[in-house]
Amino acid sequence: MSTPLAWLSRDSQHLVFRALRARLLDEKIELALIRRHVRPTDTVCDIGANKGSFVFWLSRWCSKGQVIAFEPQPTFANLLLRLTRSLGLDNVKVEQKAVFSRAGHADLFVPEGQLPSASLVAKVAGSGRFETISVPMVRLDDYFDQAQRIALMKVDVEGAELEVFKGAERILREQSPLLIFECESRHLQGASMADVFAYLTALGYSGSFVDGRRLLPVSQFDPAVHQRQDSEWFWKAKDYRNNFVFSKVPLER
C-alpha cells in the first residue's frame, strides 16, 4: 500500500510527469486506444517497459487484473520495481528479462548516454561506444499458461519486434491481443518492416500507423517517406512515423 509521502519522491514525480506527457502528448492516440480496449480484469504486457509511462496507466486501467512489465535493463527494472512497490501498484509484476522468439540468454547493447535505446540488435548501438549486458530471454508462449488470456501487448524493443511476435504466435492466433508497437527500418537486421507487417497480417491482423493526431491504414505507410533518412538526426524529425497499431477488430480512426 502506498503512502502520501511515496508520491512526493523525486522518482515518483518523474513517473507521473512522464505518464501525463505520454497520455496528453507523445502517445495520446495509442493510450486512448488502450483505454477503450482494456478492461479492469485484463492481463496486459508492457514489453520494453523502460521508465514506466505505460505501466502507470495500465496499472490503473487493469486494476483487478495484472500488468507484466518486461524490462531487461537492470537500472530501469529496479526503478520500476521500487516505484510500483512504494506507490502500491500491486497488480504490476516487473520481469528483468528480454522478450524474444526463444528462451536463453543474449547480449543487450546499451549505447553510452542513450539508455532507452538498448537493444538485442547490435546495429542500434551504432558506431559509438556501448555497454554489453548479458540478459535472460523468454518466449511469451512459454511464459504464459495457455489458459491465461492476454488483452494487450505494448512492444518497444528497438528492432526485435518480429522475434517478439514469433515467440507469441500461439497467443496472437488464439487470443488476438491488441498490439501497440514501435517499428523502424533503421533498427531491423535480417528483416524489413514489410516482413513484420506480413507476419501479423497472416495471423489475421490489420494494421494502422499513427500519423500526427490520426490513424492511417498501414497500406499507406512508406518507409522512404515516413522514415526517410535525409539528416543526421532524421528519427527526431516532426514527420517521422514509427508507431503502429495492429488489431483483429476495426479501430476508431
Overall SS class: alpha/beta
- One letter per element, helices H and strands E, the order comes to HHEHEHEEEEHEHHEHEEHE
- In round numbers, the mean pLDDT is 92
Question: Quick one: how many beta strands?
Answer: 11
Low-confidence stretches: none
The Rg value, from CA coordinates, equals: 17 Å
Number of helices: 9
CATH architecture: 3-Layer(aba) Sandwich
Largest sheet: 8 strands, mixed
The top-level CATH class is Alpha Beta
User: In percent terms, what proportion of residues is strand?
Assistant: 15-25%
What is the count of structural domains? 1
Helical content class: 25-40%
CATH fold-level name:
Rossmann fold
General form: globular
Instruction: Please give the order of strands in the largest beta sheet.
Output: 3-2-1-7-8-11-9-10
Could you characterize what this model shows?
The chain has one domain (4-182): Rossmann fold (3-Layer(aba) Sandwich). The protein has helices at residues 10-26, 28-37, 53-61, 74-86, 140-143, 161-166, 169-175, 193-202, 223-226; strands spanning 43-47, 66-70, 92-95, 98-99, 104-111, 130-138, 150-155, 178-182, 206-211, 214-217, 243-247. It has 9 helices and 11 strands. With 253 residues, the chain is of the alpha/beta class. An 8-stranded mixed sheet has the order 3-2-1-7-8-11-9-10, sandwiched between helices. A 3-stranded mixed sheet has the order 4-6-5. β9 and β10 form a beta hairpin. The termini are far apart. Helix content is 32%, strand content 23%.
